Amino acid sequence: MTGDHGASAYLFTFPVVFFGSLVLAGLAALLAQKRMGKLPRVGEAGYNVFVLLLGLWCLAGLLIDATAHISGVVDDTFFTEWHALWYSGATAYGAYIFYAVLPEGGIAELVRRPFGVLGDIAPQHRAGVWGIIIFGVAGFGDMIWHEVLGVETSLDILLSPTHIGLFAGLALSVSGPMWSAWVDAKSGTEGFTSQLLLAFGVGAAWTVLLLLTRFSHLWIAPLEQVCYAPGGALGCESRYEDALQTGLNMIYVQAMMTAGALLLFLRRWEPARGTLLLMGALHAVGVWVYANSGPAILVQGLIWAVVLEGLRGLWMAGHRHLFMALATASQVVIGIVAALLALPKTATVRTWMEGTDLHLVPYGWSVHATFGVVVLAAFIGIIATSIVMPPDVVEAHEP
Fold it and tell me: Does 397 reside within a domain?
């Protein structure tokens, strides 16, 4: 299958969007260089601002391209405006990251001894650089893949080998500044502004991984996939075990991802006011885009972000396990409440008995399972905290 270029104007719009946006970015960089004397490198004043803006460009490009694929608004070609915006952002971001970490010899030295230069990059900067390299190689492969085999839609976008490379490269590159700051004892110690780029790095990587697991998110899944009603009423699964197992798998995956993303940041930095809100907001935007639905799910995500920020006091007081238990459990509770509010007005039944089991809407699970999944999510958060932050080893004293 080859690209159907004759039926679209993509071969014209792709270079216009790609090169046009890069020209605008280049002009902005020249103005900044003229004003500042030179573009900042890692650790210099202004570096965080540049990386944050370029990272937002990359992330926005991913979300727009994902929306196009999920909605089926794609042609049978690689050369779409969605790809152009995403790849131009990645090109600009990659060029700046390379500039910021390369030796004084610059591009000439990179061309002269590429493997030596890459090997000389400090370990804390390698994630960002290698992420860009992986993204570039996967992007070139993605062009060939699309033009030869066609364009994926629906869940297929998650399984294309070149797309997996793009996701991995983007997750590494946007989180690169966080790894660069990891070894700096003073990083993130001056309030929210000092943690803005760090939290964005974690939140953006989390958003990328959310795309890979969008099929396994209780908030995104259509109600009929996880709900049970006798006789398949309201389009629900007619087998209780099937509905419950599907819902459980989603809770397992998202509780572990939520705990992992939060603990990655919290293991290194104490969250400033607003930091957890930002990370939760990025999660909300990602879920909203990948769900391809109305604003209700965005509001749902932002409510959880506010709850997450409200739990910050527990973490700061040293109640780490309780914080994580409530963070993961509240995500499930908000999902259940949102599903309950979204039930059709025609659904007048709220509870029913099957044998000795009381079943509850919105999912039609038994009362044991409905409350049990909340406890399960909390338990996953506690286990994750214990693994990531085990007790300190106490040296034995000589008798």
Answer: no
C-alpha distances in Å from residue 98, one per residue of 118, 215, 332 = 10, 35, 41
Clarify whether residues 120 and 7 are in a common domain. yes
Pairing of strands 357-360, 365-366: antiparallel
**Judgement on whether residues 179 and 253 belong to the same structural domain of the protein:** no
Domain count, the chain: 2
Cα gap 296→299, rounded to integer Å = 5
- Confirm whether 212 is domain-assigned: no
- State the pTM of this model: 0.85
Report whether 130 contacts 172 (CB < 8 A): yes
In a domain, 195, yes or no: no
* Interacting residues of 78 by C-beta distance below 8 A, sequence separation 6+: 3, 142, 143, 145, 146, 147, 151
Residues 287 and 382 in one domain: yes
Q: Decide if 214 is inside a domain.
A: no
Q: Which residues contact 252 (CB under 8 A, 6 or more apart)?
A: 380
Burial class (CB in 10 A: 0-12, 13-18, 19+), 345: exposed
Q: pLDDT 10s per residue in the chain (399 long)?
A: 334 444 455 567 888 888 898 899 889 889 988 888 888 877 677 777 888 888 888 888 888 888 887 776 665 667 778 878 888 888 888 888 878 777 666 667 777 777 777 777 778 888 878 888 888 888 888 878 767 776 666 666 677 888 888 888 888 888 888 888 898 888 899 999 999 989 998 999 999 899 888 889 999 988 888 989 877 666 787 788 999 999 999 999 999 999 999 999 999 999 999 999 999 999 999 999 998 888 999 999 999 999 999 999 999 999 999 999 999 999 999 999 999 888 877 666 788 888 899 999 899 899 999 999 999 999 999 999 999 998 877 766 665
Nearest alpha carbon to residue 52 among 287, 266, 282: 282
Residue 106 shares a structural domain with residue 239: no
CA separation for the pair 241, 249 (Å, rounded): 12
Q: Starting at the earlier edge strand, list the strands of the sheet with 365-366.
A: 351-354, 357-360, 365-366
Supply angle C-alpha 172, 112, 142, rounded to 5.
40
User: Are 268 and 375 in the same domain?
Assistant: yes
Q: Same structural domain for residues 165 and 232?
A: no
Task: Record the tokens describing residue 341, joined without a space.
Answer: 């509010």
The string of pLDDT tens digits covering residues 126-180 is 887 888 888 888 888 887 876 777 666 666 667 788 888 888 888 888 888 888 8
Domain that holds residue 47: 1-184
